[in-house]
Design a protein that fits this description.
Shape: globular
Oligomer: single chain
CATH architecture of the largest domain: Alpha-Beta Barrel
CATH superfamily of the largest domain: Phosphoenolpyruvate-binding domains
CATH topology of the largest domain: TIM Barrel
Number of strands: 16
Strand content: 15-25%
Structural class: alpha/beta
Distance between the termini: 12 Å
Helix content: 25-40%
């Protein structure tokens, strides 16, 4: 019977050795470390706990690092913003000397210059993986204003997407390059490149891995936009593993179209015998509840039936209340789907 890898995401709720060991005992085979906010150096203690827990459980753990890549994010904030429908949210350029003072006075976030220029009147902006929706009212060139259409609590360094726009930024940040250079020292087994747009993105990361002597580290290509979907054949050829990352991909297409896009990518991967992962909100309800929904376990089951070689949870283990139970449900459901698939 084929094996399905079970990945969690390390975070505050599963950072100690005992919890991580229990997650490995429950079926976890690897873990993702999100480097959007930290570096490998800053994560030394977390990684040490991970390796110790894996050794205790007799598991050869896989460590995936999720690079920053060309993802668009807002800047750091002094405090969370409680945004409600009808509120006006301001946008200013990161590095603007007036931005910090403005943040203290009213609801302001900072964004890269390329993003600020793209926030033209009438455009919609999706914040924090689409949880918050705003429509731009005006843009003076130095600042933009938008009205909140769907509210929520916004914290710093969350994603921002502007549907219908194409913003060209480098494949990797300087932090990404530094993390790749030291990846082997920390036992990294794979690099996840987010928001892959074309084969050149993957070639760039491959070159960085070879240059640092880390050519044996696997390259996972995260499909999070329609550029990636349209060029999936090229990305399959250049990667070791495809990741169907439904969070931002669900912002790039109408939500009811997302399952079809997932099926399309899965079919392409099967035809090319390329391993693929399904991720995002697989057990979202378990961030606050000890038992998943029937829809969630069906989602996991069907992903494996479609040929997924790995499944992963993110916030469910990183910040959720039940990281061990989450892994248990994920692993048991995936294994049951494998049995069903092999019996057909």
């Amino acid at each position: 019977m084929r094996h399905v890898d079970i990945y969690g995401t390390i975070g505050p709720m599963c950072s100690d050795v005992e919890t991580l060991a229990a997650m490995f005992d429950a079926g976890m085979t690897g873990i993702r470390l999100n480097l959007s906010h930290v570096t490998l150096k800053e994560s030394e203690n977390l990684i040490a706990n991970l390796h110790k827990a894996a050794e205790m459980s007799g598991v050869k753990a896989q460590l995936l690092i999720d690079l920053q890549g060309p993802e668009l994010r807002i800047g750091r904030m002094n405090a969370p913003l409680d945004l409600r429908e009808g509120d006006v949210l301001g946008f200013m350029e990161q590095g603007d000397p007036d931005a910090r003072k403005s943040q203290a006075l009213r609801k302001i976030v900072t964004v890269p210059k390329e993003v600020l220029l793209a926030l033209t009147a009438g455009r919609e902006a999706l914040l924090d993986d689409g949880k918050i929706l705003a429509r731009v009212l005006e843009n003076t060139g130095n600042a933009a204003k938008a009205t909140i259409l769907r509210g929520g609590v916004l914290t710093g360094r969350k994603s921002i997407a502007i549907p219908g726009t194409k913003i060209d930024i480098p494949t990797m940040t300087q932090a990404d390059i530094r993390n790749i250079e030291v990846a082997r020292e920390y036992g990294v087994t794979a690099v996840m490149q987010p928001f892959v747009r074309n084969r050149e993105d993957l070639i760039t990361v491959r070159k960085a891995l070879r240059k640092s002597g880390n050519e044996n580290i696997a390259l996972f290509a995260k499909i999070e936009n329609m550029d990636g979907v349209r060029q999936i054949d090229e990305l399959i050829a250049e990667s070791d593993h495809i990741v169907i990352a439904r969070g931002d991909l669900g912002n790039a297409v109408k939500l009811w179209e997302l399952p079809g896009v997932q099926k399309y990518i899965a079919g392409k991967c099967r035809a090319a015998s390329r391993d693929f992962m399904v991720v995002t909100q697989m057990l979202s309800s378990m961030e606050t509840h000890p038992v998943p929904t029937r829809a969630e376990v069906s989602d996991i089951f069907n992903a494996v039936l479609d040929g997924a070689s790995s499944v992963m949870v993110t916030g469910e283990t990183a910040v959720g209340r039940y990281p061990v139970l989450t892994i248990s449900y994920l692993a048991r459901t995936a294994n049951e789907a494998l049995k069903f698939r092999e019996a057909q």
